Write the structure tokens for this entry.
Amino acid sequence: MIFAAGPEEHSPFLVQEEPWNTAVIILDPVRFNSCQKVEEGIYRCTYPGRMAVKDTDHPIHVLLIDVVSYLRHPIRTSHADLNDALEKAIRDFEWLILPLDPSEGVPSELTAMLDDGCISDFERYRFEIP
């Protein structure tokens, strides 16, 4: 379920074609080769990639963040300004994913592209704000 702040007419609607500006990605945890807990709610994971890469045995590295677990950690629950973020993360079952592999063009930077080898499905939505 997608939630949007503000009046109902600003809510997103499901679309099958362009243009779309928001996506919900469904990850398949079975596709991960390994996941190591970095700290509460944060995991470093690898999975076999599907995009064309020079080294076909190259595993894809990502950081997964279980936002609810991360924000519920005692060191963060004392911060009142995070209460609203925690409520929304609980409501949205929020997870974040960050690619950790270097960019092909600029090896000193992380790539912004997520290899789809861990994705089982996704839905495209469009927000239309008058």
